[in-house]
Amino acid sequence: MQLKTIAAIATPEGHGGIGIVKISGPLSISIARQIFTPSILNSKTRMEEKLLENPKAQARGFFHGFIANPARGQVLDEVLMLVMPGPHSYTREDVVEIHCHGGPILTRTILALVLTQGAVLAEPGEFTKIAFLNGRIDLTQAEAVMDLINAGSQNELEIAAKQLSGELKTRIETILATLTDIAAEGEAAIDFPEEVEGLFQKEKIIPLILNDVVTPVEILIQRYHQAQALGKGLKVIIVGKPNVGKSSLMNCLLEKDRVIVSDVPGTTRDFVEEGMMIKGLSFILADTAGLHETQNRIEQIGLEKTREQIEEADLILFVLDLQTGIETEDKLIHEEIKDKKFLMVFNKKDLLEANGLIKQYNICVELKGSPGVWVSAKYSINIEALKKAIFDALSEFQTPLYPEVYVSPNFRHFQCLRQCLESSHGALNAINDGLPVEFCVMDIKNAMGSLEDVLGISAKQDLLDSIFSRFCIGK
Ligand code: GDP
Question: Looking at the whole model, is its pTM more than 0.90?
């Protein structure tokens, strides 16, 4: 529980019918008492009795009166004051809202008056942060507040409202409950090994993980991708070793010279992205700096960016050169992308020798990828086939597969969900490989940790700072 009292103007800057100055914290009600005088009509009201004489009593509700500077006695405005004693308030602290007339100078003057009485100016999102820290909402709901404010369409608005009501939180909590039960049973099996057969049976635990953890997490991940498709567009990125033809491919897909093509390896140091459409499906296509060992600091920054891009991508175009066959760099890239959805694009088809097909087959076998597409980025050969393959690979995100699951995880949730899925598969593998129960329990606990991160349970300060700093002041 924080001890400071914060205040901010909660309405947008500018002229309007009303402006609201919001105060939260232990001094809220005493500040209100200092600067607010109830109207004559209401002088014998509950407010005067309760708020002025016994501020913590149930002085809940709207009160009519005047805001005045106590030092000078000068009346600033006729207002309505909303008093919400904690814990039944947005922040669970005592909250007072002064609903004054909506002039920028007026609201700023009232705010300044509140600050002189002992409140400090609220940081962006601080009211919501306190609501989160005081356990009134979880992190998904806090994020939904921001989504609600920033919603750009009816659809986004509805999804944010659902999330605010706890839809995502409840789904995550249900999966967490299953994981907690599995971990508890695993620990009991470790502590009472003689009963291990009865306690942690493969036949029971595997379907439980598959049906009650893996499937619902996969559905949420699916919903993330669908939301991307409906919102800003799916992200398709091009990766490959230097000089394999990434920039050429980008230009070719966009049908314009957007990126410099050069035969000096490592030319594309910065990444470039551009929107494009294939059969009505919108994409963001991004070129990357490549992934290879380098000592060059600028190139290293490019590589970090590429890793971020890989993390965010809905589909990766993995460009390979059949002339060179698989090289160390290709293997390095494959390591980075193998858990993501990727499509192999064999470039420089125009230079192919007769044995190209065999090479392609060998690469597919070695990298366990689907056959991919042969193109020549330089001469625009087979680009339509590549576009069709991109469309097919992503079309699943277009149709709402789970319309009843009305949530829209954001990128942060998506990262946690992916980690949860990875750990859940680790747990399944541990059981299938007959490893000691400890291994499975460790993975289950990791999966739990990832879901707890979605809800913000024991969230680190820097994560909270980065989330709440994106809010507006006064929320
Ligand atoms: P990046 O480093 O992966 O972005 O590769 P670039 O697109 O800059 O291409 C590197 C070199 O390969 C340039 O000289 C291109 O002209 C050449 N190149 C790219 N695609 C093809 C292709 O399909 N066929 C041939 N023959 N050369 C290509």
Answer: no
